[in-house]
TrEMBL record:
Protein name according to UniProt: Nucleoside diphosphatase
GO molecular function: ATP binding; GDP phosphatase activity; ribonucleoside triphosphate phosphatase activity; UDP phosphatase activity
Keyword line: ATP-binding, Hydrolase, Membrane, Nucleotide-binding, Transmembrane, Transmembrane helix
Family to which the UniProt record says this protein belongs: Belongs to the GDA1/CD39 NTPase family.
Active site: E145 (proton acceptor)
Coiled-coil features, chain-numbered ranges: none
Chain ranges passing through the membrane: 516-534
Amino acid sequence: MGKWRYGVILDAGSSGTRVHIYRWLNSDTARKSAGEAQLHKLPDIETDKKWTKKIHPGISTFGDHPHDVGPEHLDKLLSHALKYVPLDEVPNTPLFLLATAGMRILPPVQRKSVLKEVCEFARKTTKFQLPDCDLHVQVIPGETEGLYGWIAANYLLGGFDDPEGHQHGKGHHTYGFLDMGGASAQIAFAPNATEAEKHANDLTLLRLRSIDGEPLEYKVFVTTWLGFGVNQARERYVKALLASSPGAKEYPDPCLPAGATLTVSDDGRVMEDKKASSYPLIGTGIFSECLHQTYPLLEKEKECLDSPCLINGQHTPAIDFDVNHFVGVSEYYHTTHEIFEMAHKDDGGYDFETYQKAVNDFCGKRWKDIEDAIDDKKWGKKVDEETALEVCFKSSWLINVLHEGIGVPRVGIEDLDSAHNVTKAKVGHGKKKDFLNPFQAVNKINEVELSWTLGKMILYASSEVPAPSTEALAVGFGSNEPGIPADFQYPGGAYNPYIGSDDWHNGLFSENPRRIPGFLIFVLIVFVIGYTMCGHERRKAARHKIARMFGAGSRHTSLRRRRGFAGKLFGLRSTPSYDRILEEGEASNDFELASYSDASDNDHSDSSDGSRIGRTSGWATPQIKAGMAEPATPAAYLESGRDVMAQGVGLGLEPPGGFSNPIERGGLMARTDSRERIAGGRFSRASSPRRKSPMSKLDE
């Protein structure tokens, strides 16, 4: 096992799949190099921008043709991962594909087929660790996605490793997490002590483990709001707009800039072409009216069966914003920063008054003026017409969710208690950053992307730390109950080093497969020299001794075993003493080289079953494919033997007296043939009917 441990996660979202690669020190190395303070921290996870890659569309689009998900989708992502994970660590690297919103809405039969193809393709084309497909390749619920995000946020902000430096008051030192995508939104936070006791049954028990093996336990509330992502909220908004004026020729839309037009279908989706069932939306650019019309989408009027509730009648413990400070990712960040970045200050975070003013000014502009600004790259290269058309609705939806739904105080307008503005948190490895407000939208912390995939890998790396005793409870999460509850979810199991049948090959030839021919030639030279120098009598005595050791007289041997090692090398079928040894015993088995076949060699090639991804290395080791030699044939061994013997003669290793002329050499062969004929059939030949062994081994 090397110094570093690696992990690969494929985030399979609705619009595309992104591969993330992480690494951390193995437990033994981390403990040896850690100081006293570091021993009490979680494993240090590293990543790099170039280690990520995203492709479109998502794997949910392969529901009707799942067999294509491997070669047309996963191939690119796995190839990318194999470029950065070291070759010798690939078999020790866990691979996860965790799908979210897009796969959740796929029919169960199609979802199962796609996931099955994903696992089979990864197993067939790579050697990444995939011990349990159900655990490593799955669709995760929104609650799990939110919990992983909460872990990642607190890890990057320092809430786990430095509780004293992140005290928010009332013994609280963690941060809340908000995520919003196209289809759903999540919230995760640790309630204050009073709410945690009151709603204990609604909390998730999370258990991590620091480098020294000590457990870290947290009780977190997590919930997801399906249908409350920006895209599905927009579709619900358009449906309500069409229903308000049935039969109208056009529909004024305050959530579009003035003068902008869109064509939509009756299900609320934007259409590129006008059709019989299409409806034109005409932008008015009145943002205050947009806020008013998007408020009902929160569905706060739904009955709350378990008080308190926030959105859609879903129960949520009361949030104490004196101690609960939230970070928001995904749409929370993009909608507040892509166009309105100037509405935020690095030291002050989200300011509601400044942000709402910036949105109101933008949405009140004429669409023609906005188009000209886009052409001039006023808001950067990422802002196009589609972004500009959507941002007014997205901003109004975000504001309503944050302040009317979740209840985040409006910084800049509402009078806040001093406790809301005094929190100063250390971020990452000692770097300071102020989180003074109840909410702040972020994308990266210390140049590391805040992604739920990081939280998953933190949990996995933590589970690899050895427990201090056999009584220690496992790392993972489940219901807030003592011990290991029935629904407890393990992060992926303990680290198990890969042990393959071809370890001998990896050890000798993994760095340079061209060493194989040279190694075989060296063995041949050593064998020939030793065989020649030991003398005729010693060779004869050794053959008899070996025959007695392995039981002379056995005739039920395979063709491969009867031929023996010397026969394979030099083809000396006509030597009587050689045939007698093989008929009376199986001494040749002791001298035979280990088999070298195409099957074992393929485990180390760059391609397998038509894929360009190698089972071991893929892009990381093109030299293996180019340099691997095919197994030598007996004829090849024969030629090698002759060359070696010729070299031996030049070195003075010929028999006493040498071979003075061709006649003597011919006489030697004649005497050998005569001895075999005199034996009267005692010695079995390759064509003899006395050879009863089947040919199955050779056929194989």
